[in-house]
From TrEMBL:
Residue positions where N6-(pyridoxal phosphate)lysine is found in the record: K26
Cofactor (UniProt): pyridoxal 5'-phosphate
Sequence ranges assigned to domain Alanine racemase N-terminal in this UniProt record: 7-217
One Pfam family matching this protein: Ala_racemase_N
Keywords from the named record: Pyridoxal phosphate
InterPro entries, alphabetized: Ala_racemase_N (IPR001608), PLP-binding_barrel (IPR029066), PyrdxlP_homeostasis (IPR011078)
The name this protein goes by in its record: Pyridoxal phosphate homeostasis protein
Function: Pyridoxal 5'-phosphate (PLP)-binding protein, which is involved in PLP homeostasis.
A GO MF term: pyridoxal phosphate binding
Annotated source species: Alistipes timonensis JC136
SUPFAM superfamilies: PLP-binding barrel
Amino acid sequence: MSDIACQLSFVRSTLPAEVTLVAVSKTHPAEMIREAYDAGHRIFGESRPQELREKYEALPKDIEWHMIGHLQTNKIKYIAPFVALIHSVDSARLAEAIQREAAKCGRTIEILLEIHVAEEDTKTGWNIGELKNYVGTAPFARMPNICVRGVMGIATNTDDGAVIRRDFDELRRCFELLQPYFGPRFNTLSMGMSHDYPLAVECGSTMVRVGSLIFGRRGLKKPVL
């Protein structure tokens, strides 16, 4: 069994059955993704649209590709024909642009609404008050080619577990506040990465985004054990 397969098995063993694992493969070559694929994994996350398209073209078509990084409106076209889920919808402008590209492709694109909860101003995302106002508007209702599946967020970059837990609890609160605006398909709370996903799961995460624990840090050939 390869190092990547071993690490995948380890991470899966730490997750409840109802939590989805997104293996974050950004910056890693297609052959490393293929190792994870051969170990049975099918859900991968990327942060750059053009890199995502190249990997889509090079790898098996039963892979479920997630866009997890900041997405510019002029880059949606690279991924609209095939992307399974866009985690990082952080503005009305982006949601409306995804609707237009999805309509051109004749498909519905599933999205998550990214909410800003971290202390760093550099992180992107909606303010929950603004988001609640927006999802109740007529323009939002007139977007038949997007399906809102839930919310995504990133906790403050800190070693203070209390701060991280506070951020995750706030994300869960936002998720619960927004549920009445949507149907039963609004069931995804994407939070937690390699360094904090166990705490995210404790706080109610249904989807975690784990990269370095599986593939290693950028530039390393083996996972960080």
